[in-house]
Design brief:
By secondary structure, the chain is an all-alpha fold. The protein contains nine helices and no strands.
Length: 191
């Protein structure tokens, strides 16, 4: 009885469960797989939160961002409005353009400076924010490189898996169809 008990204890329990360990080679442990999937999803969500999370900004900053988005659409719609006005009432439009031609040149220069400073400052702010985001991304580069190396280490080494050097050579007649009496009889019957 002692020997059978040891064999059954070895197979079904005791020091190690051979059946369970063998089955896990062919089929994933569902509970462990679910834990790994939950952990991976949690890590992905944490990573997304750190990537796409925005710095908290005050009401004034949000208001100014919204206000700074108005001039370009206003300029585009204003230009389209001028075309529409020119088509609807050309005389009215011509009189307004004559008034614009009376604006002195230094005032046009001043308008150009104001618009340039406005858009230039806005562009500079956005460029600096972009550079800061690139710096944060570059700071993550070593971690990304390590992750890529880990992923590449998990790949199977499939080189030389299909060694065709020791296969039998093909005969020249391998590509030629052989005689098939049944097929020839069927063709004759079909005619």
């Amino acid at each position: 009885m002692g020997m059978i008990e040891k064999i059954l204890g070895l197979v079904f329990g005791g020091g190690g469960n051979i059946v369970r360990d063998t089955v896990e080679v062919f089929r994933e442990n569902t509970e462990a797989g679910a834990q790994r999937a939950a952990s991976a999803q949690n890590q992905a969500m944490t990573q997304y939160a750190s990537e796409y999370g925005t710095a908290s900004r005050g009401r004034f900053d949000r208001f100014m961002d919204g206000l700074n988005r108005l001039p370009r659409p206003a300029l585009a719609l204003g230009t389209l409005g001028m075309f529409v006005a020119a088509m609807i009432d050309p005389i009215w439009f011509a009189s307004r353009m004559q008034g614009v031609s009376l604006v002195p040149e230094p005032l046009w220069w001043l308008l150009g400076v104001v618009v340039s400073f406005y858009f230039g400052a806005r562009h500079q702010i956005k460029t600096q924010e972009f550079q800061r985001s690139i710096a944060r991304t570059i700071a993550n580069a070593p971690q990304v490189a390590q992750t890529i190396q880990s992923i590449q280490a998990m790949r199977l080494d499939v080189q030389d898996s299909a060694d065709i050097e020791h296969d039998a050579p093909l005969r020249p007649s391998a590509g030629q169809p052989s005689a098939n009496p049944a097929l020839e009889d069927w063709r004759k019957a079909a005619l």
